[in-house]
Amino acid sequence: MKLNMAAGPHLRTDDSVRKVMVDVLIALIPSFLVSAWVFGFRAVWIMLFSMVAAEALEFYIMRVLRKKKDFKPDFSASVTGLLLAMNLSLAVTWWQILIGVFVSIVLGKHVYGGLGRNIFNPALVGRVFMLISFPVAMTTWYRPFYYKYDTITTATPLAILKEKGLDSLNNWADYTINLKTLFIGTIPGSIGEVSAAALLLGFAYLVYKKRIKILIPVSYITTVFVISGIFYLIDPTKYASPLFHILSGGIMLGALFMATDMVTSPMTPKGHIIFGIGLGIITMVIRLFGAYPEGVSFSILIMNALVPLIDIYAKPRIFGTTRGGKK
After folding, report:
1. Count of beta carbons in the 10 Å neighbourhood of residue 185
2. What is the pLDDT of residues 204-257, one digit of tens each?
3. Which of 115, 154, 276, 287 has its CA 20 to 30 A from that of 265?
4. Which segments does the entry list as coiled coil (predicted)?
5. What is the span of the domain harbouring residue 289?
6. Closest to 294 (Cα-Cα) out of 159, 108, 106
7. Could you give the number of structural domains in the chain?
8. Which long-range contacts (CB under 8 A, 24 or more apart) does 178-185 make?
9. Residue 9 falls inside a structural domain
10. Residue 3 lies in a domain
11. How much of the chain is helix, strand and coil, in % rounded to 5?
12. CATH at 270
């Protein structure tokens, strides 16, 4: 029997960055379609415009500034552009989107050296920058199925809860607020976050394709459920139910598609659980005690910064050694 000697790695795969990103884009199609149904053509335009702008900017950076003449788009910029757009309000203008895309691609990604080297989720870097820079546009919400975007504005379920209290949720005249509408997505909010059903469908596809870190969303959502459940049991007339918190706002989009970013999340299963628990705690602290009704974007960026420490703490023990590293 002849043995061939060769340098590692000996385990090979046909996967590539492009294939992974294509799968993510496919997984986001259900949310894309629901957003188009609920918010109309403007939502479609914002999502496509953001994707094209992100791809064009990255192509310019790679081909012209970094002089990589053999660069071919791997669709990671499209994923960043689409996720950024799904975190935006319909009220943003084209030039505000361009600024958000610039911050996401340049400051959130390429200043660190490009894909695989960025510390923070690029789409959320752009989203938080836009929220701070353009607070009016980023917090102006339109009623679902009202396709004239200059007259019919309203508040999101989380904003109603924060500003007017729990009783107003059950008696809100602009649109119906219940677990069914929250699950389907016929509520106002950021373009791609409103439909939990569509996001779960896309998440199931990524699980099937083995592209996702399932422990992160499970530990994140479980932590939100436990903390909100405790407060709900203490005073159900003041605090919303756990299912309301899970289905409203950006928890589903953040937990299923943004916190699971393989570049900016921990590497080990133990690290995934710690990461998810931290996300849930920070999100609920902001929602329950902060002035801002939502906390998903900030929680993910904060936990992104802690990933190196989590990886050190959660590093598995080398076989044949003790916990102290001794043989």
Report:
1. 24
2. 999 999 988 899 999 999 999 999 999 999 999 889 999 999 999 899 999 999
3. 287
4. none
5. 18-312
6. 159
7. 1
8. 179/243, 179/244, 179/247, 182/157, 182/244, 182/247, 182/248, 183/247, 184/34, 185/34, 185/35, 185/38
9. no
10. no
11. 60, 0, 40
12. 1.10.3430
User: Cα dist. 327→98, 119, 315, 316 in Å?
Assistant: 55, 34, 16, 15
Rounded Cα distance, 316 and 267, in Å: 10
Give the pTM. 0.91
Quote the distance between the C-alpha of residue 98 and its chain's center. 19
Q: Phi, psi at residue 179, to the nearest 5°? A: -65, -30
Which residue has tokens 């799904």?
86
CA dihedral 131, 136, 141, 147 (to 10 degrees): -110
Q: Does residue 89 lie in a domain region? A: yes
Q: Which H or E run contains 199?
A: helix 196-208
Token pair for 60: 């310019």
Please give the C-alpha separations between residue 144 and each of 63, 124, 177, 326, in angstroms, as whole numbers: 41, 24, 12, 61
Alpha-carbon span 146 to 152, nearest angstrom: 7
| Among the listed residues 92, 188, 79, the one whose alpha carbon sits nearest the alpha carbon of residue 143 | 188
DSSP 254-318: IIIIITT-TTTS-SSHHHHHHHHHHHHHHHHHHHHHSSSS--HHHHHHHHHHHHHHHHHHTPPPP
User: What are the start-end ranges of the E strands in the chain?
Assistant: 141-142, 153-154
Is residue 186 situated within a structural domain?
yes
